[in-house]
Amino acid sequence: MFRHKLRKGISSLAGLTEILVAGIILLAVLLSAVLLIFDLVGFGSGLFGKIGVPTYNDIFSTAIYIVIGIEMIKMIVKHTPDSVLEVVLFVVAKRIVADTEFGSLDLLLCVIAIAAIFAIRKFLHFDAAKAKDGTTFAAETRVCDVEDLLHVDLPNNIGDTVGEVAAGEFHRLERRVAEGEELQVGEALFRIHSMENGEIKKVEVVPLKRK
Is the pTM of this model over 0.85? Predict the structure, then answer.
């Protein structure tokens, strides 16, 4: 019991720290957006022959950095692998469209990187796919992340991941684990989405009560 409370306390403290970091990044994004407006005014003045003003490439690069900052905030808040891939995708895209010193080999590597990102999302199923009446998570997704995303309370004394919780509850109730089987866990309905070699691979979580 003490270990459970300690683990939950550390998790809550880590969550607050993440929110603080996200707030700092948000403040930096807002300040950068304001400066971008001034740069845009300066760029307009440069069209009339003034020197020492921001170039189009400078403005475009700053805009992409702002977008990357926004995606990083979403990554911190959502805790989903898909949001991580989006950040990486924007970073690679920034490298392609905004960097001035860019060779053919760099372009090839960036294209390969983008293709790899889409391959990961398509074939390795790292993104949490939206289901008709719930959200499907990989079995190794942490319970605390699901709670934050769906705003529900789930028991985490059974296991640290949704796969462990689902397997533990099925075992406790002496029920057969199979695709399509479902049971209520805390404030959500757990439905076995897919299995492989007898192990749970994906679990669909349907909120029954939102905070």
Answer: no
